[in-house]
Amino acid sequence: xxxxxxxxxxxxxxxxxxxxxxxxxxxxxxxxxxxxxxxxxxxxxxxxxxxxxxxxxxxxxxxxxxxxxxxxxxxxxxxxxxxxxxxxxxxxxxxxxxxxxxxxxxxxxxxxxxxxxxxxxxxxxxxxxxxxxxxxxxxxxxxxxxxxxxxxxxxxxxxxxxxxxxxxxxxxxxxxxxxxxxxxxxxxxxxxxxxxxxxxxxxxxxxxxxxxxxxxxxxxxxxxxxxxxxxxxxxxxxxxxxxxxxxxxxxxxxxxxxxxxxxxxxxxxxxxxxxxxxxxxxxxxxxxxxxxxxxxxxxxxxxxxxxxxxxxxxxxxxxxxxxxxxxxxxxxxxxxxxxxxxxxxxxxxxxxxxxxxxxxxxxxxxxxxxxxxxxxxxxxxxxxxxxxxxxxxxxxxxxxxxxxxxxxxxxxxxxxxxxxxxxxxxxxxxxxxxxxxxxxxxxxxxxxxxxxxxxxxxxxxxxxxxxxxxxxxxxxxxxxxxxxxxxxxxxxxxxxxxxxxxxxxxxxxxxxxxxxxxx
Length: 519
Description:
Layout: H1 8-18, H2 25-40, H3 47-56, H4 62-73, H5 77-88, H6 95-110, H7 122-141, E1 158-163, H8 172-186, E2 191-196, E3 222-228, E4 231-237, H9 245-258, E5 262-266, H10 271-276, E6 282-285, E7 298-300, H11 313-317, E8 318-319, E9 346-351, H12 355-358, H13 361-373, E10 377-382, H14 388-393, E11 401-405, H15 410-414, E12 419-421, H16 429-437, E13 442-445, H17 448-454, E14 459-460, H18 463-475, H19 477-498, H20 501-518
Parallel strand pairs: 1-2, 1-5, 2-4, 5-6, 6-7, 7-8, 9-10, 9-12, 10-11, 12-13, 13-14
Antiparallel strand pairs: 3-4
Helix pairs in contact: 1-2, 2-4, 4-5, 6-7, 13-18, 16-17, 16-19, 18-19
């Protein structure tokens, strides 16, 4: 079988990269760039070309090979192969290497780079059970055995919140965590201890591509006191890299000394919170939509209205409540001239921290259709990027597609825009909430955080409806004014839902009750 001539160049380049050096972060990034080019060119949908790639790479490191071919094709069966390989050596493989691979897989799923139809039950039936097995290995190999409270002890009024990553007030999940801590202390009278565990890999421990390393805020090391909304919040933070006995036993000892009634895992796959589940009640507060990986007694929803339908542990722990996104309101406004915009323009804005990946070729083509349909429209991109400006410059609508890079005055930018345009992605909920609070309508597909936050009024089913909705809003001032008011009303409703302290307290009590039954 011959590879397609149209993909010959991408195939040759990719094979050369894969068969070359792969022992450094720079080499893995170069391989990833080649995989991305091949994926964007459609190589993964060319069966003959993929067969040739399969054969040419048969002798390579299996993690490198399977992850690269998964990157190009989106085929989750490649990830199944990796999990099967890891299972055979799970008691011997480096914990840091396993952790790296686990988070790298999750990253690709989060970025919607994988074809969920290739293995529809991948997360619930394969990745989540693997996460459980990995946690058992961590506990056994590092000799972690949290003690917990004795049964029948009176309430201590203390809660531990555990997060994988706390960065700054500019980081949406970090702001949301502080909001939760403030409400627990101020409104429920609890004393809160935050653990900033930094358990995601911050460097490369495996040959998985694309490599993933999380950001770490170096100044947040040791014991911290954070002031937020009149409350003093105590935090213990470790920036020590890797999955080590000293790091994890230190966190577990701190929790034992604090003696909480409840542990809250803030986000999914919060390793330390799930390790503590053997000794304490655990509740999980997700920070994104999709399937949340957590061993908690109670796992809150993210705006979804029904639990997973598979009857799994995750389905049984799910509860229909969303903790609110924190919307930062300063009242900052601007004139269009301050952002080099004209009064007659219909200004669309795309906001995000991963726009290099999320504003891909397919999305730019869709934006091109909007620009064709609305002559007075232009699109701004707000968020740190590296490759996107070059792709915009080569686009046929180059003058009407503008990358602003990182924007400090996001609230001011929103005030001079007409429409928040959302790519197909998982994230973006915080940006959408900020936009809607400023009266900016949202245009989104029915997937991900933005759709969950925005609600049905602002989502469409397909590309044609996407273009038609943008054109309708651009051509009808009354419709646009109605959408602006709907945006404000919707985000107020979302905030009220998340501010239901009585409901939060009830779920916390239920988690304690469920723990008492299973201990």
